[in-house]
Amino acid sequence: MNNPAILSQPLSPVQQPIFRAPTWTVDAVLELFELPFADLIFRAQQALREHFDPNAIQRSTLLSVKTGNCSEDCGYCSQSKRYQTGLEAQRLLSTEEVLAAAKAAKAQGAGRFCMGAAWRGPKEKDLPAVMEMVQAVKALGLETCVTLGILKEGQAEQLKEAGLDYYNHNLDTAPEFYGDVVTTHTYQDRLDTLQQVREAGLKICSGGIVGMGETRQHRAGLIAKLANLDPPPESVPINNLVPIPGTPLANSDPIDIFEFARTIAAARITMPSSYVRLSAGREQMSEADQALCFLAGANSIFYGDHLLTTRNPQTPRDNGLFEKLGLHGV
Ligand code: SAM
Ligand code: DTB
Ligand code: SF4
Questions:
Q1: 147 CA distance to ligand 3 centroid (A)?
Q2: Does 70 participate in catalysis according to the annotation?
Q3: Catalytic (active site) residue 145
Q4: Does ligand 1 have an atom closer than 6 angstroms to the CB of 122?
Q5: Each residue of 70-120: pLDDT tens digit?
Q6: Is 327 in contact with 296 (CB distance < 8 Å)?
Q7: pTM surpassing 0.85?
Q8: Do 218 and 181 touch, CB atoms closer than 8 A?
Q9: Mean pLDDT across the chain, nearest whole number?
Q10: Sign of the alpha-carbon torsion through 185, 188, 190, 196
Q11: DSSP H or E segment with residue 155
Q12: Whose CA, among 30, 155, 161, 198, lies 20 to 30 Å from 265?
């Protein structure tokens, strides 16, 4: 016998007066994680179907516009200058190089083009070149996104004026675990940047990484933090750690696929009107694993052969998977 009661309550956010979005406690998110798997997937599908075509997938293509030699010590990252990862650093690309990649992404069907730079944050002298890239990509009719690190006052406004749609800046994990992964900047630095981005009228892309040795409580803590941003991020990338030899997290135990899917489902239920992106780590997943993540409510992917410095599934493979699952791009 199925039990409809368990599917509809009591796992709801604490209701606040109507002028505030609902608050998710870490415990309420943990309760979602602890549901029987089928009940969790059912809840996630309900949330997805209330807000989206469940077979439509948003596709963003990534390009690293400045690679490596980063001052920060993020323990997962191939681009920190503190770790011997064998990565070849590259200076800021020219607008022409970026434009060629954006045109190719558009021809493949991507709707958004995301440009990433391995900076703690952009220097004043860097910004005009990035603004030129944004303007040029926007003129192709693509949505634009950049991820440049911590912003100084006024920089988000400059990017907005250049035609930027989204700023990606991940919270990455729960506040209490962040210091185990990164020591060169703080969780509060990241929250401050998100606030500046929002105040400039940009849309927010913010999510995190799973599989860094965090606990389920930490995963629930990350989701609660994201869901309680007011409003929540329009785009929520959930990355499965890509272990990079030479980094402190190179030998992390891979996360169980059901726990990864649970994290996606928790994001879907707590942020029902956001795009939840099945992000880094797809190259290491089977097609069945990915299908599970779509069932759990993911409705966005990174599309194209490369992420920033690591590989992503080849486009024809993704197109084949879409065909098998009856998915279509938006
Ligand atoms: N430097 C900027 C910053 O830190 O915000 C932008 C680039 S940074 C590479 C963007 C995001 O990529 C990180 O916040 C993290 O979530 C994700 N990322 C980086 N390396 C990863 C890895 N090895 N596996 C999974 N996700 C990763
Ligand atoms: C996000 O959440 N994931 C992307 C994007 N935002 C910038 C980056 C994934 C990087 C994976 C490891 C690499 O290729 O270096
Ligand atoms: Fe630098 Fe960003 Fe990598 Fe951290 S995640 S080391 S800030 S490029």
A1: 10
A2: yes
A3: yes
A4: no
A5: 999 999 999 999 999 999 999 999 999 999 999 999 999 999 999 999 999
A6: no
A7: yes
A8: no
A9: 94
A10: negative
A11: helix 155-161
A12: 198
